[in-house]
## 1
Amino acid sequence: MSHAFDILGDPIRRRILELLRERECTSGDVVEIIQQEFGISQSAVSQHLKVLRDGGFASVRHEGTRRIYIMESGPLQEVDTWLAQFRSTWLPRMDALATEVARGKRERRRS
């Protein structure tokens, strides 16, 4: 599990997963977007893609000379299952926060 958090701890890899969640992407598409957003080299983006592949978070298929990246949900489901044991801790607090926010909005409307 800690390996998954090491992989997900990097903002660039999280952004790549966001892109792959939306749609399958060619390596060129990923490189172009990540270079624009983070200003890193093509080889650095390729290294992040490799980490995601090696960790099982992404897979690749070849179409001619193109490499198409796909997000794999299995590792994310494992993280979600592990986090489930902690949800009972934070969900009541989030509900209480939502109640306080709603109360504050009502009070502002009244004044």
Note: The chain has a mean pLDDT of 93.
## 2
Amino acid sequence: MKLSAAAKFISGGFEALLAIPFIGGSIVIFSGYSALGTAVVLHIITLIITLLYRTAKTPSIVGIITSIISALPVVGWLLHTITAILLLTSATRDLRR
């Protein structure tokens, strides 16, 4: 498996976890919002890997933006859902290369 696909699956899976209504919000709130900091770090690492492997960068950039502005409850859920879909779709494409 390509490292870029693995990184996207990991960060996409974390985004999908945060997108689960009430569960994701609880994780964010009870972690003192540090879960969003963890997500930013994951997306930055994934972005660096995608730059090295020359694969799609956009999902990681969207993930960084999502993690920064997703402190708003409904907006956060929507953005985490969109970001998870983008990352997991991109990871699947990376595997086919």
Note: The mean pLDDT is 94.
